Amino acid sequence: MRQVYFSHSYRDRSINSYFLDRFVRSDFELIADQKSSTWCVAKLERYMLESSGFVSIIPRRASTDTLGYSPYIAHELSLARRASVPRLLFVDSIILEKFRDDFPKDAVPFIYEEPSFYANLHDSAIKNFRLKLQDSSFTPLALRKRKKATVIAARNKELLQAADGVGAMLATSDYDVFRITGQQLHSALDDVRLLEMLRDSDLCVFVLGDRLSYANVVLGVAYAHCIPSVRLRFDRRAANTNPDVNGLIRWSKVDDLLAAFDEQFDDFKFGMQEVVGMAKSTSSDDAVLDISRSRREEITGAFWEPNNGDGLVNHLSMDHSYVEDRVNRVKNEMVGSLGTNRSRANSMEICRRLYDNLRKRDDFVYELEPQSMMANSQQIRKAQEFDVNNSATCIDLACLFASLLEKAYQRSVIVVLDGPGFAHALVGYWAPDEPNEHQSLDLGTIRGAQMRGDLVLFESTGVAHSEKPVGGETEEERRFTDDRKLDFSTAKKAARVLLEASDIRLRFLVDLHMLRKLPK
Amino acid sequence: MASPVKIYQMEMYNNVGFFATWLPGDHIEVGAVGVMKNGGFRQEATLIDLGIKFKQSEEGSPQPLKYTSSKGTTVESSAGARISAVTADIKIDFSSEGAFLFDALNVRQVRIVNRFDVTADIIKLYEEGRWHKEWYVIESLHVADSATIIVSQDQSAGIVIAASSELPIPSTTLADPRIDLSVKSSRGKLFQIIAGRNLRPLYACLRLKDGLFNAPKVVPVRGTVSRETSIEMFARPSIAELLES
């Protein structure tokens, strides 16, 4: 059986597991990209060209305001359609109904809450797809010459300097690098050798200026042929080099461009995982879990020893633009100073708005921490990573909320509790009129403070999609909303339930507000 | 070994984070000022006596509170699972010192809501020499419409309570004022309040923090809102302070 690209949303594990089970029975070879913090469209283009087929599972991605589906899956589907790869789409029936024109007519519906309702239809579609692939004349470009790259740069001193840097990085990885610049670009539409050079390349890199040039014409040619391409466009206003959903990276400094390309190139070289084989050796559930777990990232210094409560202060991101932006939004909503009104009602309102904004506007998914080779330590994701990677554990989100609360002049705390076989972090704040000094910070003190309203704690993962309860919430509470998140009241209740459980022990409470004030 | 009262107070504190009043029938109010002595709060004045005005919150929503000691307490009802019973004997056995049962109905919380003002006024009194450094102020407490509290003061003790009502008796209710409760028999040494009315079984307090005026005092330069920093000169006492008093 030839390889088929498996496009799916990492967060919807039970749906993915349901469909993977059915593909396992039909003996497909499905390849999927393991979750990472890098969105590399060139890699997707490469695998799209090298695959015999394209399978996509498209569930809803609901927020309180809108109902939609992942723009990343939408882009993968668009790549498949451009590459004319035979495809099989399973689409959430509500999404299919609402966005009928977005999907080809042969899309197969499924019911999100009960996918097996159409099990016969799904099995039949998979069987027909298998036959279609056998009969298909589509030939993947699997025999592409490897290790050949083409760098295309508009004629400009800075762009050429950037292209030199990119070429050097490619050469270091033993790529044969070809350059297209200057006069060659002018004949882009007439010179068939140029098209052949592009098509013969494993990877094309476009270093573009802020104005349209012949390099953009060549990019259009590459785009139409789905040739794997990294697009780097100069933009003096670029705040960061995160790729947009189409893969376009904006940059303002050559050093930033080279760092961004390095990350893209690393991801491009990283292979796909064959998920059906993984499912056969374990189970579909395990295979889906493995593929949706972030792969081991480079050690960034974000490691934390989980007994070191005070060490959490090093994982705050108060000065990051992400945190500043969210706090300013709340400040604008509340029309006034956040710090001077020291009433309990005001603190609660600030916290509720910070929470609601993250829940509605950010697309977090509850995820385990990145895999690591470091024993007895855990990687904590910081604000800069939330901009590009929307997955988080309870401690990641607790640190994020602590940063937001501190920035909004609240006295943030993180509580880590141990239960039978788990440890869990809650986040919150001391009421403004509660003394800083507590003679002891034991579980009783925390329970009493919470009961009096002196300490407000909530379930930080309530802002993240999770199909199963993460903390003290019930299964029903997790399933109450389409987006599988918790409203603020439920997040507070979940924290209370966990805190009041009889089998809970306190690992530590960290008063980040006080710790920040200590001399380094 | 800890005394039975200390065990009761410690366990109640671990469960709810409030100090347990001892004796549980002692009447205390928000705004009471006093010292900790022999494991209990001993009132010496009130904020009102001292000229400090405070606002008390509305009573919070009523809720039941029910705890038994982590070990040594068993409760059996002759009504069993029959919710239609109109008479029943409730048998409570204690197999260790300090084993207890705490069953309260319609428990509501009240507290001082203008803490910034009250703490600033206390600091002023202290500076005038009219506030004793060892004083505590009750700033929050639980009021229970009805409660049964039994603490064993022996290694082995027990009590049988006869319950009768015109309404069906839930199997373990010991605080419902609609049920007549009377002690049928008992053995060993027990402290007991059976269906006591209008109790204040739990409280929380504040005191001035240690070394208050030894530390250099640097008030942030931010205008008159600095008055609100008076709360930083207070501390929340630990349960150990009560138990070791």
What report would you give on this structure?
- The complex is a heterodimer of chains A (520) and B (245).
- Chain A is an alpha/beta fold and 520 residues long.
- Chain A is built from 20 helices and 22 strands.
- Chain A has a six-stranded mixed β-sheet with strand order 7-6-3-1-2-13, with helices on both faces. In chain A, strands 9-8-10-11-12 form a five-stranded parallel β-sheet, sandwiched between helices. Chain A has a four-stranded antiparallel β-sheet with strand order 21-19-18-22, with helices on both faces.
- Chain A is globular.
- The N and C termini of chain A lie far apart (61 Å).
- Chain B is mostly beta strands and 245 residues long.
- Chain B has one domain (4-214, 223-243).
- Chain B is 13% helix and 41% strand.
- In chain B, a hairpin with a 2-residue loop joins strand 2 (32-37) and strand 3 (40-46).
- The A-B interface holds A 340, 342, 432-440, 442-452 and B 13-18, 109, 111, 115-116, 140, 204, 206, 209, 225, 228, 231-232, 234-241.
As a whole number of angstroms, the C-alpha radius of gyration of chain B is 21 Å
Pair with the biggest interface: A-B, 22 and 26 residues
User: Segments of chain B where pLDDT lies below 50 for 5+ residues?
Assistant: none
Q: What's the number of extended β-strand segments of chain B? A: 12
SSE sequence of chain B, one letter per element:
HEEEEEEEHEEEEEH
Q: Tell me the domain tally of chain B.
A: 1
Q: What are the key terms here?
A:
heterodimer, A: 520 residues, alpha/beta, Rossmann fold, 6-stranded mixed sheet, 5-stranded parallel sheet, globular, B: 245 residues, mainly beta, 8-stranded antiparallel sheet, 4-stranded antiparallel sheet, 3 helices, 12 strands
